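hi!! sorry for the late reply, been swamped w classes. u asked for the two structures so here they r. pasted raw, havent cleaned anything up. first the sequence of the first protein and right below it the tokens
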Amino acid sequence: MSKNYYITTPIYYPSAKPHMGHAYSSIVSDFFARFKRIEGFNVYFLTGTDEHGLKIQRAAEKNKKEPLKFCDEISNTFKDLSKTLNLSNDDFIRTTEKRHHISVQNLWNILEKKGEIYLSKYSGWYSVSDEAFYAEDEVEEKNGVKSSKVSGSMVEWVEEESFFFKLSKWQNKLLELYEKNDKFILPKSRRNEVISFVKSGLKDLSVSRKSFSWGIQVPTNKDHVIYVWLDALTNYLSALNYPNTKDNLYKDYWPCDVHMIGKDILRFHAVYWPAFLLAADLPVPKRIYGHGWILSGDEKMSKSKGNILDPLEIINEYGLDPLRYYLLKEVSFGNDGNISKDKLISCINSDLANNFGNLCQRVMAFTEKNMSLQVPKNINFNEEDLKILNKFSDNYDNLIDYINNQNINSYMNFIVDQMFIANKYFNDQEPWKKKNNLKRLNSIIYTSLELIRKISILLYPVIPNSSLKALNIFNITEEQINIESIKNNKFLESGTNIKKIDILFKKVLSND
């Protein structure tokens, strides 16, 4: 089995500053990337910005700036957000980079030579906001304004000469792809949605525009720019130095293991993208995962509604790791979710401060007082010790399976359960009453230390900074974290020195 793993975030559209939806996609992708690294995989984790199209051109004009200068500034806010979110991405691609232009034009040339692209005229409804064309039955009128039923974005009638991709030709091949690999699109509800759309009949897709200039030129016709989705989607290849298919990055990491996307761009990734690749005789990605939205109240966030949730404000008030923990634990992955400050505070106080932080504090304080901050010697596990320690080895394959199938909630539920069990164990064993039975005392403390180590490793992809502070107790560095070590019940070497720990999470007082 290949030990390489390639995961991508959506390529973000920098027409405005990042919001919580962007943060969520990135945090989720980072979670998987970090887990696969500690599982021993060579991970390539990509994020970036999609900087072409009419929407960007109009936003730049509105701000009285050249499009590239406008993109430079906004793209930097997404780069800064990557750092603020403590993402472990290996690359950040921009579609205005030369390497991307080379990839896109190469893909276009292949499709054109294969007769997959032809020149005609487009007439139909177009959403500047979505950079998407919509059929008549996908458009509705309210208060004299026509908008997409899919996204709610305003549409306008467009008539112009356009190059078309023969999408209709690939309808049966796409259905065959979905049939052969029932996990190509997850969750299942998204798969059903895509299959229904494709079965209803695919029409050829407009892949160029003539009415604006901000984009990559069609190599064979300078009057046209390549339509944003054929341009944007190719970033997943251009980051791997395509069209150099002999390059190690391309050879090692394509096809991609997971494209992590929001459900609003599912059609582009699960229909158009594999069709482009099939037409160019290139391997298709292994999986498209369309997660839900992070809502503001009960609505999708949008600049026009003025309901943008700023992740930086939440981070400044509550901290990064609590936000990461909340989004991964409280949002039912695949479905829509929202930020509730009450639930966030509850997560911080109950799970992080009480269950995890307090466990670390109590065990370390007791170890310092009674064992001079040394891993106990003379251990003899009893049945109860082994039962709680073996929970991790017994569930190891399940945990790997959760990750491989993007089952975040089951993974998080396991951690929460183990934090509760570890605290209960320490309370029930009452080590403070075992000082006359040194072997039993040693075994309880050793077991408790091992539980902290195992839980901290599982928490590393979720709350990396806080987890590393806990692992620092045992002098375990980030490079030394190995998920397989949770199967080892005697990992800690008896007699070695361990360190004190500061308070990991401060409780938050409710405003009520």
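now the second protein. again sequence first, tokens right under
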Amino acid sequence: MSEKIRLDAHCEAILQEFRDNLPTFKQMAAAVRSMLSETFNEAGLLLAAIESRVKSEESLAGKLELKGGKYKSLADITDIVGLRVITFYSDDVDKVASAVERLFEVDWENSVDKRKAHEIDSFGYLSLHYICRVPGYDYKVEIQMRTVLQHAWANMNHDTGYKSGVEVPKQYLRNLSRLAGMLELIDDEFSRIRMELTDYRRRVQALVASGNLDEVPLDGDTYRSFLSLAPFDALNRRIAAVNQAEIMDVSLLPYLAVFKSLGIKTLGDLSRIIKEYSDGAYQIATYQIGLTDLDIISSSIGPQDLCIAYILKSGAGKAGIRYMFDNLNGPSPSNDVLATMLVEQSSDFPFMNQ
């Protein structure tokens, strides 16, 4: 502790109480952090960080030197144990607050919602601060909730000395205030975009479920929704029946890039290709595995042979097939060999002459 700090007997007694209970405070910080982490994980809430700390003796001594007269005992100091929950989105702060309210008894009289501040330079100080009573402990804990951008702003201000009581020249103050406003707009925009994306995914799921596939553009979200309908299962089962084989499920997400490279723009387009080229895909698969004793096939065989059938029928030939394999497996000389073989075999496929 700094030798410059001078405390009266009352404050020294509070400081000694802190020393005596330091193990309890460390245990309390760990327990609260664990409770919060478990709760947020169960709720599926993605956070940037959960931080915890016990106030240092030097920091407490400095606080007592300035304000010691207002505290009757150590229990009156509500930030001995502090936690900070940092969210990616501003609307998640309220979700975190709701969880904290369910876990702990909130001391509303000493808690503060700094988000209600209206100062133009207050962005980094818009945290929500709850003072909470933790079951099994005699002391309170402060839980701060803020976004990543608010946290970054507060740290930068602390580092530059802004808000430290030192007068800042007006030209710097103006620039800081402008930056604070920009960051607040960015925070709000992130939340707005996430909300719109969530609405978009819900609309897509509804359109897919209703069968209005021509209205649904092919992208990562829509393709995942389409896969939930098991669109390749019938073809895979038909192919598996050739050898009475089992089907091993694998991810079909890599085929999104292949389908897009074929010029497929909507789920309606993809659905028509499945319908129109399933016989061709079946003929290719039969040629490949019909004379083997293969008893396990990958669930990717259906979409793979659909793409091959489409490429062959459209005239893209060897280059198109090689591009598909390069896309799926990475560039390799063996892809050229496979493409050459499939083109040579194509005359044996009945669908090519239809």
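hope this helps!! also noticed smth abt the second:
The chain has 13 helices and eight strands.
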